[in-house]
Amino acid sequence: MNKQFAPENDAGLAVFNRLESEVRSYVRAFPALFDRGVGTTLIAADGREYLDFFAGAGALNYGHNNPVIKKPLLDYIERDGIVHGLDLATTAKKAFIEAFEQYILKPRGLSYKLQFPGPTGTNAVEAVLKLARQVTGRSNIVSFTNSFHGESAGALAATGNKEHRAAAGFPLAHVTSLPYEGYLGASVDTIDYFKKLLNDPNSGLDKPAAVILEAIQGEGGINAASVDWLRRLRELTSRHGILMILDDIQAGVGRAGSFFSFEAAAIVPDIVTLSKSLSAIGTPMALILIKPELDVWAPGAHTGTFRGNNYAFVTARAALEAYWSDSKFEDEIAGKSAILAEELRAIAEDFPVLGLSVRGRGLMYGLVSPKHHSLPGLVSQEAFRRGLVIEIAGSYGEVLKFMTALTITETDLRRGLSIIRDSIGAVAATLEGESRGSLAK
Ligand code: PLP
User: Fold this and answer.
1) Which atom belonging to ligand 1 lies closest to the Cα atom of 1?
2) Which end of the chain is more exposed for a tag (fewer CB within 10 A), N or C?
3) Orientation angle between helical segments 310-323 and 91-99, nearest 10 degrees
4) Looking at ligand 1, which atom is closest to the CA of residue 276?
5) Judgement on whether residues 203 and 163 belong to the same structural domain of the protein
6) What is the pLDDT at residue 432?
7) pLDDT for the residue 3
8) Could you tell which of 2, 148, 277, 309 is best to mutate to test the pocket of ligand 1, judged by most ligand atoms within 8 Å of the CB?
């Protein structure tokens, strides 16, 4: 979530300031009146172009209005294809389910039932927490420090963010927050800590129904769990009969370099949540994957009017067919990931006084400013002035969050990184002026 608040200029935004709730956030950080989106370019009503290093917070992995995905949707609309379908059987839904089995599940040897909840990530999380509790008969859930799982009460209880939790207005219960990998420093093994709590009858930890986790924490500041940590968590939860829910809403659909973020660890979660980029064009859609033996739902036990967004089925299927029928797309992501990581390290080295560090995986990277928490927010504002949209993350906004479309060209990737480098230089120079030389290189 974006916490930086630039002064809102008068870019045709007066009506938003006058009538839209104070809850609005991104519009404050990026005050432009956006009109069109083409690939990785956002175009404002005044004609100004912005390079998009934000990708709809991970909902636009294939870029804006990708023609490969848009064309089948236009055809579908043109022939009066069903738009709204609850959970009725439709041809669009059938084609999506078949494609998901063919391109995603089968090649990975995965066997899951598919549940379509209401179309937000939050609703998917809400549903899986209910399901885990139903399956096990236990109420407690373990989530991890710095996690983000959504805004409704159940999902929020599993979310770390203090301000979001406070907005609930009542105590959020039945979740225990445990340290994610690295939270207590490199010397503390947080899986050992969890193991100890589970094995000690007097630890005070109520045996959880499930753990819910992100393999790469997005909103929490791009914390990427190691393969080893994920494997050991899988072993520990299996041994104790605790379900593992992998929330792949942000890190999934190619973001981490493979379709699922957990593939590198070769683990099989019991339940997986997907949303954001699954629809491939920015329309709402969510999907839950459930090991067949855990699918204990009674018919209609978790419903929602917008479970059947058929436009999303059409676009999601088109993307699976175009990008996931072979390994070409993954290879391209790996190539761009290497460029991104290398360039970010070079930027960090070029400003040694700032003490920046780099972390992440795939095309989900963070440039971390542990010494100066305000720096990423200032850099984001400066980059926006220079025509690039990028957001910040982390407990204190200390992480500049790189989330380009996976389809970004190498030229645009390098162009954006050069804007970031210049923006850091400009911010560092200002801060140096303000603090008489304590910050700049
Ligand atoms: N889970 C994760 C990992 C997320 O990153 C988000 C949103 O950022 C959600 C759940 C909630 O998804 P939504 O905003 O679609 O409700």
Assistant:
1) 8
2) C
3) 30
4) 15
5) yes
6) 81
7) 46
8) 148
Residue 273's beta-bridge partner residues?
247, 288
Write down the pLDDT at residue 2.
46
d(CA 65, CA 63): 7
Task: Let me know whether 140 and 190 are in one domain.
Answer: yes
**Domain check: are 173 and 287 in the same one?**
yes
Domain count, the chain: 2
Question: In this structure, are 221 and 274 located in the same domain?
Answer: yes
For residues 389-412, give the mean pLDDT.
98
Residues 41 and 72 in one domain: no
Number of H helices, E strands in the chain: 14, 17
| Three-class SS of 159-215 | CCCHHHHHCCCCCCCCEEEECCCCCCCCCCCHHHHHHHHHHCCCCCCCCCCEEEECC
340 inside domain: no
Name the more confident of 52 and 437.
52
The per-residue pLDDT for range 291-327, each reduced to its tens digit, is 999 999 999 999 999 998 999 999 999 999 999 999 9
Q: Does 44 share its domain with 71?
A: no
Rounded average pLDDT over 335-356? 98
Q: What are phi and psi of 21, to 5 degrees?
A: -55, 155
Q: For the stretch 399-423, what's the b/e string if a residue is b when 16 or more beta carbons lie within 10 angstroms of its beta carbon?
A: bbbbbbbbbbeeebbebbbebbbeb
Q: Tell me how far apart the alpha carbons of residues 213 and 190 are, in angstroms, rounded to a whole number.
A: 14
Asked, for residue 378, whether it belongs to a domain, the answer is no
| Residue list, ligand 1 pocket, CB within 6 Å | 57, 120-122, 125, 148-150, 214, 218-219, 247, 249-250, 275
pLDDT of 441 strictly over 90? no
In this structure, is residue 406 part of a structural domain? no
164: Cβ–Cβ under 8 A, 6 or more apart, which residues?
Answer: 1, 151, 156
- Expressed as residue numbers, the domain containing 229 is 67-323
pLDDT band at 431 (very low <50, low <70, confident <90, very high): confident
**Same domain, residue pair 40 and 72:** no
Residue nearest atom 13 in ligand 1 by C-alpha distance: 121
Q: Express each pLDDT in 181-230 by its tens digit.
A: 999 999 999 999 999 999 999 999 999 999 999 999 999 999 999 999 99
Ligand 1 atom nearest to CA at 122: 16
- CA atoms of 146 and 137, how far apart (whole Å): 27
Judge if pTM exceeds 0.90. yes
Q: Can you tell me the mean pLDDT for 230-236?
A: 98
Assigned domain for 421 exists: no
